[in-house]
Design brief:
Structural class: alpha/beta
Distance between the termini: 90 Å
Shape: elongated
InterPro entries: DEAD/DEAH_box_helicase_dom, DEAD_box_RNA_helicase, Helicase_ATP-bd, Helicase_C-like, P-loop_NTPase, RNA_helicase_DEAD_Q_motif
CATH superfamily of the largest domain: P-loop containing nucleotide triphosphate hydrolases
Function: ATP-binding RNA helicase involved in the biogenesis of 60S ribosomal subunits and is required for the normal formation of 25S and 5.8S rRNAs.
Catalytic activity: ATP + H2O = ADP + phosphate + H(+)
CATH class of the largest domain: Alpha Beta
Number of strands: 21
Protein name: RNA helicase
Organism: Stereocaulon virgatum
Strand order of the largest sheet: 5-6-4-7-8-3-9
Number of domains: 3
Length: 630
């Protein structure tokens, strides 16, 4: 028996016969050796707090209701014990049976969970079969996959209920039921589907409810599915080394675009950024605005094909893209209207600014055809008339399997920019949860429109901004209760105003027609990439890396001069004249500034340096009004 100093420098005894120097290891949890190999392959050294507490309870067969912040490892906390139990049962009998049903609110999260299952079952893939019901595959193929009784089924509640109703999915042998992001499943309108699932699931099924917050929705699901669950509530510690630095900027409606231009053109924000806007049109307005200045960005919204959305997130996580402009339509629907109660689907609420879409049919803006306004849509790559779309909309459901502010695993996000402030403190918390994950630091910057400045600039007005001040007060109060501070931040608007005429030029080019055409063009391109090239990418996966989503959409008027910032626009003391330095990720100087290049630039400004050889040219004799040299 040896002795070892713990974190408090107190000697503790450890057993060297096991080979473990600490009980806080995955091997100490008693997991299958094949799972431990997969964990080691992913370089997971020690389990997180939620994993170390939840996995032993799960292996004992207890229901679990776990609350832990985003990025704390909740997915592995339920996948690992489920895989362990499946492998243990298969060692004694080899019968095929669906053992686990994992319910998630969005398709993106379903893809993410399926990938995590594949990762942790890398060394036992022949023994564990998984089906993701949210994938766009023919119904006949889906029924065939379910007929083979996969061990794990991942689905949204709507897809699971649909397959239960048509008898394609059998849950007679179900042993585990997981509801991930339980606090938002009901707000997505899945309550009727969950009621149907609860009636079909046999009694005695072990249940996992995983959530980032404990709300009345979670309490409802607890009563519906759980039997005396073990409640694991891990409060976030503000002094754990991570956290979000939060700032609020009071500005006019058009100043949002001005500040966004200055921030990204002058590279005041270092690292990757997610910009949240209120609806899909707002996505394209901001993207087209950025294109005027040569600022590249990706769009992420519910209108895009699911394969494109997943690919955008994956490429963003690989540092291919730095800026994602994400719409938050469900947040707008859920908070501007009355909050749906149990038994009320999101489909029954009249939308305010959220576009209505089907799961497999994507609405396009109205287009002008031979002088008449006609609505069209793309359905699996084909354009269909408006009357067909309306008939399908009567029989179909609105798309509710999309979500950006929650669930999706965005990695290494330096900043979340609330271009349009959310309409509730809860939504704000969900949005800023995309940064400062897994103990890292991050920054949240929110634009707030004062009530006196609302609707002063009609072309940039957004309806929810009317109540920005009220919402900001609630956000600040809510964060203070959690021991966090939301600080005001002030840009030097005198310095920023030098860029205003350029901002106005760019905004004038981003007309409604330009937005409509860009939205249509982007959708057609993404459908082509998503559907037509799917087989090619399956055969040539390396080509997928060359598929980009941040290409230019082109506004109505191209202005190349806006891409360059002339020196006379810069304040005399550099970027520090616009904003202070010490605000987290909003750095104001390039750390990689080349000193040789800077010296050459200074020499040019002083009239020094190399001069062109030969005789001096008279500028009046060489002047050409067409801009061409003689």
């Amino acid at each position: 028996m040896k002795r070892k100093l713990n974190n408090d420098d107190v000697p503790t005894a450890i057993d060297t016969s096991t080979g473990d120097s600490s009980t806080n290891t995955f091997s100490a949890l008693g997991l299958d050796a094949r799972l431990l190999l997969a964990v080691a392959k992913e370089n997971f050294s020690n389990p997180t707090l939620v994993q170390s507490k939840a996995i032993p309870l799960a292996l004992e067969g207890k229901d679990i209701l776990a609350r832990s912040k985003t990025g704390s490892g909740k997915t592995a906390a339920y996948i690992l014990p489920i895989l362990h139990s499946i492998l243990h049962k298969k060692s004694s009998k080899s019968s095929k049976a669906t053992a686990a049903l994992i319910l998630v609110p969005t398709r993106e999260l379903a893809q993410q969970v399926s990938k995590a299952v594949s990762t942790f079952s890398a060394f036992c893939s022949k023994d564990v079969r998984t089906v993701n019901l949210t994938q766009k595959i023919p119904e006949a193929v889906q029924r065939t996959l379910l007929a083979e009784s996969p061990d794990i089924v991942v689905a949204t509640p709507a897809r699971a209920a649909q397959n239960l109703q048509n008898s394609a999915l059998s849950v007679d042998t179900l042993a585990y039921l997981v509801i991930d992001e339980a606090d938002i499943v009901l707000s997505y309108g899945y309550d009727d589907d969950l009621q149907a699932i609860a009636k079909a699931v046999p009694k005695g099924v072990q249940t996992f409810l995983m959530s980032a917050t404990l709300t009345t929705e979670v309490t409802t699901l607890k009563g519906l599915f759980c039997r005396d669950p073990a409640i694991l509530d891990f409060q976030e510690n503000p002094n754990d080394g991570g956290g979000v630095s939060q700032y609020v900027v009071q500005c006019a409606e058009d100043d949002k675009f001005l500040l966004a231009y200055v921030i990204f053109k002058l590279k005041l924000i270092k690292g990757k950024c997610i910009i949240f806007v209120g609806d899909i049109d707002r996505c394209y307005r901001l993207k087209l605005f950025f294109e005027q200045f040569g600022i590249k960005s990706c769009v992420l919204n519910s209108e895009l094909p699911v394969n494109s959305r997943i690919h955008v997130v994956e490429e963003f996580n690989k540092n291919i893209y730095d800026i994602i402009i994400a719409s938050d339509e469900h947040e707008v629907l859920d908070t501007r209207q009355a909050k749906p109660s149990i038994g009320t689907k999101a489909d029954d609420i009249e939308p305010d600014v959220m576009p209505v879409t089907k799961e497999d049919a994507i609405d396009l803006p109205t287009t002008q055809v031979n002088g008449h306004v006609a609505e069209t849509q793309i359905l699996h790559g084909e354009v269909q008339p408006a009357d067909t779309r309306k008939q399908q909309a009567k029989n179909g459901k609105k798309s509710k399997e999309y979500g950006v502010s929650r669930g999706i695993d965005f990695q290494n996000v330096a900043c979340v920019l609330n271009f349009d402030l959310p309409t509730s403190s809860r939504s704000y918390t969900h949005r800023i949860g995309r940064t400062a994950r897994a103990g890292k630091t991050g920054m949240a910057l929110s634009f707030v429109v004062p009530a006196g400045l609302y609707h002063k600039h009609r072309s940039t007005t957004f309806p929810t901004a009317e109540h920005d001040e009220e919402v900001a007060e609630k956000i600040i109060s809510h964060q203070q209760k959690k021991g966090k501070e939301v600080k005001p931040y002030h840009f030097d608007m005198k310095q920023v105003d030098a860029f205003r005429y350029r901002m106005n030029d760019a905004l004038r080019a981003v007309t409604r027609i330009a937005i409509r055409e860009a939205r249509t063009r982007e959708l057609r391109q993404e459908l082509l990439k998503s559907e037509k090239l799917k087989r090619h990418f399956e055969e040539n996966p390396e080509d997928l890396h060359h598929l980009r989503h941040d290409g230019e959409l082109r506004a109505a008027r191209i202005q190349p001069h806006l891409r360059h910032v002339p020196e006379y626009l810069m304040p005399g003391n550099g970027k520090t004249g616009i904003a202070g330095e010490d605000i987290g990720f909003v750095g104001l100087r390039k750390t990689t500034d080349n000193p040789i290049r800077r010296a050459r630039m200074q020499n040019r400004l002083k009239g020094k340096g190399k001069k062109p050889a030969g005789r001096k040219m008279d500028p009046l004799k060489t002047f050409n009004a067409k801009g061409r040299g003689k």
